[in-house]
Amino acid sequence: MSEDTIPQFNLVDSPWIKVQKTAGELELVSLEQLFREGYSITKLAHESALEDSAMLAFLEPILLRSSFFHFADAEDFDVAAFGTEARRNWIATLREKKVGNFDFVLDYLQHEDIKPYFELFHPEHPFMQVADLHTEKSTFSPVSRILLDSDSDHFSMRAASGKGTLDYADAARKLITVQAYDYSGIKSGAVGDPRVKGGRGYPIGVGWQGATGRVILHGENIFETLLLNLPISRLFEPTINENGEEDFKIANDLPVWEREPFDGAAPRNYPKEITTPTGPCDTLTWQSRRVRLFPKNGQVTGVLVSNGDKASEKFQDGIGCEDPWTGLRYSKNQSKKGQEIWMPLQHNQERTFWRGLDALLVLSPNQGGDEYAPKKPQTIQDLNRYFPHNMKVQVQLVGVVYGNQNAVIESTIDESIPVELALLTDEFPEHTAAILENSQKSMDAAIQLGRFAGSLLEAAGQSYEFQPAATEAVLHRLEKEFRIWLSQVTHEANPQELKESWQKLASSFFKREVENMLIGASPKALIGRIKDDKLISAATAQRACHREFKKIFPLAYEDKTQ
Length: 562
Known about the structure:
The protein is of the alpha+beta class. The chain is built from 15 helices and 17 strands. The protein folds into two domains: 3-313, no CATH class; 429-556, Orthogonal Bundle (Topoisomerase I, Chain A, domain 4), CATH 1.10.132.100.
């Protein structure tokens, strides 16, 4: 392709990011427009939670690096003096809806040393790609290869006829998403990759973000969301640079567009199989794949996807797993005496809301929690230092369920939990414990309902068998009630009253569920039968179920008149 035929599409000033404005309308904006008008942008609004998550992870390092240069260029800036109070004031200033607050980001994006690296089809360093990537036979795939929801015509959100081409804006978004969430399996063998055997690139695992459980905090607008998801303490802690001067740790944490030399077909640091990222900026823009887009007549008509870099998942003594958006779980199998190993915590597909809530509000050891309980994401650990306690946020849990040896995407996990910011911190352990207790009791009662459904079958003459479908169905229906209740909980509430209020609400809910199941019970179950000289009927099962509910929700049954 000659110079005069190379398409021009720079992500800085070309519209390509889908957003929802505060008035509700959808719009396509450039990077420059997003960072100029962010107070009027409610959220990203792409086709899937995976795309939104990947795009937000791409935007975060832009804010981080531009902040670093903003401080580094300031006259007489004192790194050591930029402590918790100074950072808190900085965050508070940026949250104020003032025109020009984020001009330092615009300066960064327009800088002559930065903007060219956001050119999607640059002849030497195309954005998140390898310019001359090719196979021995110069083959490539249709663009459907980077539509992670549409490799199968049966499950695609797009009609088959719509998968032949992508416009540049869509291709840029899908490029970022495939770097973050691509499935594993055999890839096209790129010339220059020493790992290729027989023209094939053998599996190195899924995209980095797909190997984690994303925990994303959403504020009132996109600026507030970006600030909430900044790993502030980790990044702006002082360190000593190579000149013996005090500097920020982020100084050496480079996103892909600032790294040189440019990525080639070979992995970073070869022959090492696994690389430890330099920090969150590196991690959030991690190049799990080597990609090349093939444009023609204003559209992307083909794509080549090969293996990229495999990141280290291990976290030990503060080194490794620099991802600020994932919790960590203790790995007993990989840990040794005197060496604790922690790995990214993935979301559980079953009862995602309830189990996700447990992981999100996990009690730390100094709150009486288990020493090896999951660790909260770095961003959540920072919250109490930099944001007001009474701030309401939506906590989004995003994850991927891969199948067939991680070679296909089976489903996406996407849950949102409304909560007051203070309850995510370690400052109110009694409130956290009360919420977790209410969650656990709700699951216990749901299990009891599954037993009740099994008892109805027994009363009708069948063998008793626990009914898991009844448990899962009632937990799904109860989610809405719990979300509403949780959204109204504040750190000023009395923890005991929190337990009582939910137990009363949940007890009434489960009683109604039992009544509804009785209405649908068969005549045989209502009449009952004699087994081992005992009557087994819908009525006896109901009484047994209510006895268990009384044990689970004792505060709902207390007589306070005595």
